[in-house]
Amino acid sequence: MNKNNSNISPSISTATLSTAEPSSSSIDFEFDKQHIWHPYTSMNNALPAFGVVSAKECLLTLDDGRQLIDGTSSWWACVHGYSHPAIVDAMQSQLGKLSHVMFGGITHQPAIELSKKLVAMTSDNLTKVFLADSGSIAVEVALKMALQYWQGRNQPNKQRILTVKCGYHGDTFAAMSICDPEGGMHTMFGDSVTQHEFVSAPQACFGACFNPSELGEMRAKLEAMQGEIAAVIIEPILQGAGGMRFYHPDYLLGLRQLCDEFKVLLILDEIATGFGRTGKMFAYEHAASNGQTVEADILCLGKALTGGYISLAVTMCSDEVAQGISDSPAGVFMHGPTFMGNPLACSAACASLDLLANGEWQGQIASIEAQLSTELAEAIDYPQVKDVRVLGAIGVIEMKSTVNTAQLQQEFVDLGVWIRPFSNLIYIMPPYVITPEQLTKLTSAMKIVASKLVESVEVSGFISHG
């Protein structure tokens, strides 16, 4: 984002913070601290956890009655906000009929209806649907699909996966092996992590000029390892947990062409970007030029699939990929989770996709993007801010140094918002139903904390690893 000399003041009135009657619910924080592991947290020096007793629309109600405006959509999943009646009603209705049944040898209408919707809304070549448990498992499934496909095409030596640096695809072992090799977890687990192939991350920013030579390293790697690379996997347009990087759509177009040229499958990981977050229903739709479009051979979806109400993910593939898997020595696809095709989750997903089908999300995302662009612009002038960027319903202030997650998290709660920074990033991905007033409170809080952080860095070295 270009520097903006506007005089927007990063202020927020604590007097306007929403409160509710204190809840009678008691949360045993001491037991939680002593016995329950939270994500990426030490049991010896745990990050503080705040007690949430209820949530509605964009507000999280704490056990002490305070209400926080949710800026993360619960890790980017609750796009319709909390307690949406359409999703709640669908789940309650399904719960009374069939909450779960094994998917082996049995089918049910919620899975069929969801699969119909997904086949209709994704690119034409994606016709086969595998209903998984979570985003990480969807990626595991995609990688297994790619390897089995080449077994069925009598090229069993194609077992390597190629990807770009700064990516993130999940925390299970196969997914972890294709996350960024330096910022990820490779070094912690040594030889237990399968070694795959990496090239430099896309460099041209979204909206900037693109130089096709940027794909030179990818071409060279594909050429050098012909007969070994089974698939390329990438997050379309947005590299999420790897740094909230927005890259040029032409990189994705060029990558699709290279995969075709070198006969390699293309896996698109839309777990974080799917269902409207970047301004398109799927981020790969940004990559369209002169009649050219990008189609994945294998597509991973999750997070917002159910509106964030229950865990569910999907791996879709083309007829060709499905046929290759069926022609492999096993003759079947070798994966089958216990909760595969869970009817309760499928019913939630159907309701969530029906809400998206009315098209209202498009206007919501456009309004959020415009407001984020205006209200975050001034932060680029803060001395310790490296970059400010916005795409769809994503707003990012990138600092020059790593921030203290625990301290900033507390500051945000004191300002009446829920924002969870990581690394050197202060970012929001709010629910699509957020009001302009609520969004202003989020952006104001981001600027307050970023500006205080600048002062603290200059005075006392506030920034530290958190």
From TrEMBL:
Q: What is this protein called?
A: Adenosylmethionine-8-amino-7-oxononanoate aminotransferase
Site entry: Participates in the substrate recognition with KAPA and in a stacking interaction with the adenine ring of SAM:
40
- Which PANTHER family does the UniProt entry name for this protein? ADENOSYLMETHIONINE-8-AMINO-7-OXONONANOATE AMINOTRANSFERASE
**UniProt signal peptide:** none
* Any one of the GO CC terms: cytoplasm
Keywords (alphabetical) are: Aminotransferase, Biotin biosynthesis, Cytoplasm, Pyridoxal phosphate, S-adenosyl-L-methionine, Transferase
Compartment(s) where it occurs, according to its Swiss-Prot or TrEMBL record: Cytoplasm
